[in-house]
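User: I'll paste a sequence; please echo it back and then give the predicted structure.

Assistant: Echoing your sequence first, then the prediction.
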Amino acid sequence: MSANPKLVKRGYIRPLDLKQGKVEMSHGGGGRAMAQLIDELFQQAFDNPWLRQANDQALLSRPEGRIVMATDSHVVSPLFFPGGDIGSLSVHGTINDVATSGARPLWLSAGFILEEGFPLADLKRIVDSMAAAAREAGVPIVTGDTKVVERGKGDGVFINTTGVGVVPDGIEISGDRARPGDRILVSGYLGDHGVAIMSLRENLSFSTNIVSDSAALHDLIAAMLRAAPDIHCLRDPTRGGLASTLNEIARQSGVGMAIREEDIPVREEVEAACELLGLDPLYVANEGKVIAICPAASADALLAAMHIHPLGQDAAIIGEVIEDSHGFVQMETSFGGRRNVDWLSGEQLPRIC
């Protein structure tokens, strides 16, 4: 979105054919066609005062506090799935990366890599979904860029989003702050996103529809911080799921983790699908869940606050942080045994986000 839409005189060229039209190489060429795409699609969908400046950057007021920035690239396949699409996912994913630092997300950028021949109707659907997700979250898309690659050199559309937020004073959240005795909480059922996508890929049907949990978590996290400002760690368990995320934090903090299988919320449908597909739900991606690690004294208040919020109604305390110089994550199984929950080896679900 780097061309200046003001250079295009309305009525001088035909409107975009958003029903039957296709992405063309000229839409990324920096000329009139690109300006038209920006003006008639991106600008109209994402409209806000910063975008209306029509510059190659957004001029933003400097907020008070510590600045957080996160970036994420989205290559999910298929582009549309039960509960969301690559557009809403790209907004939610970056907002969550910013919010899990304890920050209030302020602005987003969006970069599109489009493949020649991609239907403009599908692009409009994705952009509209993105715009709706940003409006609902209250985090505007203030700048962006568009590139087009030749037919066969891409996969429809890839989206990169970058988010900027601000952390208030007194909040110190990091993956290296977990301490022995801390409690481990998750905000709800795990594995919904990954199984929703795999079910669509494998053309599987279940008695109950499994939909992605894709959601922006910043309002939930703000409520959590009001209840327990001494939270030590927050992380959204996306690729690699709960298991890999806990291993990540254990390594950063130099501690071990002990979790209880019977306390980990997983839907029966997700368990059944994972068994059918040969997957472990502990490693399946999520796009609307958060892991929280906090002092034991704050755990009950934190859990109560999570239960009040719609995105935390099924939250649970699933274990605790323990002393372990090896940084192992161990799980007490439902049969009373114990097993190590190691890092994900390889890629269980490719192109999941």
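The mean pLDDT is 93. Residues 120-137 form the longest helix (18 residues).
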